[in-house]
Amino acid sequence: MSAPTQLRPAPGAAPSQPRRVLLWPLRIVLVPYAALLVAQPVLAGRFLEGSYEALKPHGAIGGGIIPLTWIVCAAAFLAWRPGRFSPFPLVASGLLSVLTVVQVVAGYNRSLGVHLPLGVAIVATGLAMLGWAWSPRRLGTRPARVGAP
Fold this sequence. Notes:
Layout: H1 17-21, H2 24-48, H3 55-80, H4 88-108, H5 112-134
Helix pairs in contact: 2-3, 2-5, 3-4, 4-5
């Protein structure tokens, strides 16, 4: 007796409901993560303009982003492995978990030659992950085209 054949959805087909559910933890955790990432250059800019009190929340958020990145990694793993979504968020968040520690160390050591460009890369990668997770394509839907019948 042969084993029953499992049918797989056609490429480009909408993901199943259980698969969709596994994307939501990543989506939820990426919103505050991205907001904190975007706040960092704003606070750094205020500091560079002479508002020295902006440095304290900049450092505190930087330290808080480290454990939040680990939570993003866990949510990305759920989306990738059981959810069967792309490994992009898992690879990106794994890389960010290392780079964020380097970023905080560079900031406290006042190594601006490393701290500033690495900060730009971290923010850009975090926003790319947010865009990836919230794209309608992740759920197999597309926005209506303007002027389409």
